[in-house]
Amino acid sequence: MTALLEVDRLDLYYGDAQALDAVSIAAQEGEIVAIVGSNGAGKSSLIRAIAGIEPPRRGTVRYRGRDITGLPSHAVCQLGVGQVAEGRQVFPSLTVRENLEMGAMLARARPRMAGAIAEVFTLFPRLRERERQAAGTLSGGEQQMLAIGRCLMGQPELIMFDEPSLGLAPAVVQEVFQTIKALHGRGLTIILVEQNVAVSLRLAQSAYVLENGRIVMRGSGAELLADDRVRQAYLGL
After folding, report:
1. Cα–Cα distance for residue pair 117/136, rounded to 1 Å
2. Phi and psi dihedrals of 166, rounded to 5?
3. Over the chain, what is the mean pLDDT?
4. Is residue 30 helix, strand or coil?
5. Comparing C-alpha atoms, which of 7, 4, 185 is closest to residue 81?
6. Which of 212, 203, 211 lies closest to 179 in space, CA to CA?
7. d(Cα 125, Cα 120) in Å, to the nearest integer?
8. Which class for 186: exposed (0-12), middle (13-18), buried (19 or more C-beta within 10 A)?
9. Are 230 and 224 in contact (CB under 8 A)?
């Protein structure tokens, strides 16, 4: 079976510094794929390469069998690949509604803008309450909801989450993971880069361990969660 997303032997450099070394991963349609590893392992670089933000030096990225390597980020989004970036990156001076409208600027999304906003407000009632509020005045958790909602406005089929719980209060973190589970339940394919290794592996059907820009382990989420090397390195067990 052809994977929805295939990354094959991807090399990425920042100047002379190599960030990714022959990285290969795959995501089947409808599954959660966890990418775990320490800070600086290359996880965000992998997300950025798939999203078309950083051009790889070698290797290929395929989406639905199509080679999308090196396409600009707006073209990758237009194909159905969404990203919730690390640090949320909302537009602080725009209102909640205006941020959501910005997410629907893609040709694939514009015809469904009104319905998509209603769906986001159903998923995140607090955003409806703050519809006319400037995004920069929201709490961290509310900004993360807005970042997820803005991504959903683009009608993605695959969403890449880059450290979605970073800097959030524990109660909000649980809400974010419940949202990810709910989106998966709707049939969305998800790539999850997350500092909370235990939770991400419990959620994931497939998982990869990235160290120093290389994939060093792969398997199901349950297999990696039970692996002594993973437990010692990332769970302190």
Report:
1. 19
2. -60, 125
3. 94
4. coil
5. 4
6. 203
7. 8
8. exposed
9. yes
Bridge partners of 158, per DSSP, are: 81, 189
Contact 146, 90 (CB under 8 A): yes
**Bridge partners of residue 39, in order along the sequence:** none
What are the phi and psi torsion angles at 200 (to 5°)? -65, -40
Measured CA to CA, the distance from residue 144 to residue 139 in angstroms comes to: 9
The residue-averaged pLDDT of 105-128 equals 94
**Can you give the pTM of this predicted structure?**
0.92
Q: Which residue, among 86, 33, 56, has the nearest Cα to 208 in the 3D structure?
A: 33
**What domains, with CATH codes, occur in the chain?**
1-80+157-164+171-237 (3.40.50.300), 87-154 (no CATH)
Distance of CA 64 to the CA centre of its chain: 18
Task: Using pLDDT thresholds of 50, 70 and 90, give the confidence band for residue 1.
Answer: low
